[in-house]
Write a structure and sequence with these properties.
- The chain is mostly helical.
- It has a single domain, classed as dinb family like domain (Four Helix Bundle (Hemerythrin (Met), subunit A)).
- It has five helices and two strands, in the order H-H-H-E-E-H-H.
- Strands 1-2 form a two-stranded antiparallel sheet.
- A hairpin with a 5-residue loop joins strand 1 and strand 2.
């Protein structure tokens, strides 16, 4: 559980760094903003599924703007903090049943879902950084090891 907690601290830190960069450079690339929205909407969908609530009406890919991203970051951080605080270590291997966006049913452990969400965001933050570089903007360092070095957490 300690590792998962740290992964979510990193996730929140990385999302905040991307947001601040997009705000500071006045990112006008809708493609970059849509990728960032996708990360945040997917986080929202997954925490909803982890709670056993139907997520079929929530968007996964939807256009947005920086203000929507800022709002989603706060909501997702609060929702995951509450969720992670409420579960016990033994709950991590419990299976969660959910229906994906195409209507297909699946079962996965909480541990696998939580790991997926953290890795999914990092994958798309890499895509955002690639697009920022192509636009002549310095990519955002969101490496896990940078986060660890900055905060020296155990």
């Amino acid at each position: 559980m300690k590792t998962i907690q740290k992964m979510y601290e990193h996730l929140n830190w990385a999302n905040q760094r991307i947001l601040e960069t997009l705000q500071n450079v006045g990112a006008d690339s809708q493609q970059v903003i849509n990728l960032f929205c996708h990360i945040l909407y997917a986080e929202q969908v997954w925490v909803t599924r982890l709670r056993g609530v139907d997520s079929s009406q929530l968007p996964i890919w939807s256009e947005g703007d920086i203000a929507i991203c800022a709002k989603l970051i706060k909501q997702n951080e609060e929702n995951f903090k509450t969720f992670l605080t409420d579960i016990e270590k033994t709950d991590l291997d419990n299976l969660i049943s959910y229906t994906n966006s195409t209507g297909k049913e699946f079962e996965c452990s909480m541990r696998d879902i939580l790991t997926h969400v953290a890795l999914h965001g990092q994958y798309h933050r890499g895509q955002i950084n690639s697009r920022l570089r192509a636009d002549g903007i310095e990519p955002v360092n969101v490496d896990f090891i940078t986060f660890v070095r900055m905060y020296q957490r155990e």
